[in-house]
Amino acid sequence: DAKTTQPNSMESNEEEPVHLPCNHSTISGTDYIHWYRQLPSQGPEYVIHGLTSNVNNRMASLAIAEDRKSSTLILHRATLRDAAVYYCILRGSGNTPLVFGKGTRLSVIA
Amino acid sequence: GAGVSQSPRYKVTKRGQDVALRCDPISGHVSLYWYRQALGQGPEFLTYFNYEAQQDKSGLPNDRFSAERPEGSISTLTIQRTEQRDSAMYRCASRGLNTEAFFGQGTRLTVV
To answer: Within 10 A of B106 (CB to CB), how many other CB atoms are there?
Structure first.
């Protein structure tokens, strides 16, 4: 699987937008960009995924660069419950496993 | 149940004993994945199944680790002759044909 690079940690104020970056310069044409997050003492949970176009769902937005070598997860209004480790993962089609890196630990300050 | 269920939630075992960790995936999910997670690290892939067929076991650390999913539903991860370094959180996830992966709460294994 192609690798991703994320900052180790980020901090945000509550109710402010958060932009979590991910670099994936070796992405292949068939790789989807997935984001999962892991709340304290919980298993990872799905956030969003995309291939080429920007994506929005109830949890977040995903902005994908035109050359697909980077992407940004956007939390529009961070809450204390969004404090978690966020993982950016590349995965091809089919049911191949997710390969996790170290992710970005997001702290949200009240 | 509605989610992925793992049992036991906590397991303390003596070094040298065998342990079996169980994963009950979401009903109908084709794929089942096992991960191991050390404190402060991301989940580390161990093995996965499509239906009852083990597709990839490249992540299993050594031959003391094995997994099975005989009927394409419940899976068991077995660790023989446990060692202290096997202590970790073991997580299971399942995925349907066109769904994201859903993770269970994990089994915390402590080898003393």
So the answer is: 24
